[in-house]
Design brief:
The protein has about 325 residues and is of the alpha/beta class. The chain is built from ten helices and 13 strands. It has two domains: about 5-180 and about 225-245, Rossmann fold; about 180-220 and about 250-285 and about 300-320, UDP-galactose 4-epimerase, domain 1, CATH 3.90.25.10. Helices cover about 40% and strands about 15% of the residues. The longest helix has 22 residues, at about 85-110. The radius of gyration is 19 Å and the shape is globular.
Length: about 325
């Protein structure tokens, strides 16, 4: 039986990944500061530990693993990432985690290690046109991310690639593009746009209004969690060593996403546009390279994922699970 370690197993993607690996027959250890918030972990062993601390990393990684998935990071939605007041902690915490985990993986002789990078590494200059963003993997340099979160992710990509060159560490890297779905953060300030809009629409009375930061014309692509997991597993099994985009090519305005959510809820609401952190004007995954390397790319329509996510958020609200 293969053994896998999931770092960040208490988080949204990590919790889903543990479930996926168990279904594939892995023995799984999860490690995080906390247990999953909305559903019990399916990990065979779950370690509560702070991966910024070397001793706790050693305890969590006390043996070689066939596969390591490094998803742990200090992150959140636009309200957290782009506020500016969290920059130092975001960079400090996430960089420490990656430095500790990668060094320990090399020392204990583990197999492949997967690193979850982000579309936030792409230069802001390539994402000023909401209708035609350039997020091909090669466009990452000359580097100019739009946030300190993006700079840290890019720095960590280079750490993993350096360990691959200098120590033979088998590294796989994916640049996530806005992953969403059930069991994700949906309130409290760290939620991302799909969950935030589901909550706002669910809370609003018929005929009421919801608020959107900016003019609503900024664009994004959103990847449903099941396709994210499929991509992670395919990337881990492939021979593609360079970073790959993992996201949807279906682009939508934030206003369009809000209108889609209202249609799912069967509500007529108005939108009030207010100042707030927005990030870049346009972003969409360019899947040319992942399709070339894997013979696969995400294809699930956004509406299908939102049709699952909205009822879940509504259920959380009705049950008072804040």
């Amino acid at each position: 039986m293969k053994k896998a370690l999931v770092c960040g197993a208490g988080g949204f993607i990590g919790g889903h990944l543990v479930r996926r690996l168990k279904a594939e027959g892995f023995w799984v250890r999860g490690v995080d500061l906390k247990h999953p918030e909305f559903t019990p972990s399916m990990a065979d062993d779950f370690v509560i530990g702070d991966l910024r601390e070397a001793l706790q990393v050693q305890q969590a990684m006390d043996q070689p693993f066939d596969e390591i998935y490094q998803l742990a990071a200090d992150m959140g939605g636009a309200g957290y990432i782009f506020a500016g007041e969290n920059d130092a902690e975001i960079m400090h915490n996430s960089a420490l985690i990656n430095l500790q985990v990668l060094r320990r993986a090399q020392l204990v002789g583990s197999g492949r290690i997967f690193y979850s990078s982000s579309a936030c590494i792409y230069p802001a200059r390539n994402q000023e046109d909401p209708g035609h963003p350039d997020c091909h993997e090669a466009s990452a340099y000359p580097a100019a991310p739009d946030s300190e979160y993006g700079w840290e992710k890019l720095f960590s990509e280079r750490i993993y690639q350096a360990f691959s060159r200098n120590h033979g560490t088998q590294v796989r890297i994916a640049r996530f593009h806005n992953v969403f779905g059930p069991f994700g953060t949906w309130c409290g300030g760290k939620e991302k746009a799909p969950a935030a809009l589901c909550r706002k629409v669910a809370e609003a009375p018929e005929g009421g209004e919801i608020e959107i930061w900016g003019d609503g014309l900024q664009t994004r692509s959103f990847l449903y969690i099941d396709e994210c997991l499929e991509g992670i597993r395919r990337i881990m099994d492939a021979d593609a060593c360079d970073p790959l985009n993992l996201g949807s090519e279906e682009m939508v305005t934030i206003r369009g996403l809000a209108e889609m959510t209202m249609a799912i809820a069967g509500k007529r609401l108005s939108i009030r546009y207010i100042p707030g952190p927005q990030g870049v004007r346009g972003r969409r995954s360019d899947n040319t390279l992942i399709e070339e390397k894997l013979g696969w790319k995400p294809s699930m329509p956004l509406i299908e994922g939102m049709n699952v996510t909205y009822p879940w958020v509504l259920d959380q609200l009705e049950k008072g699970r804040f």
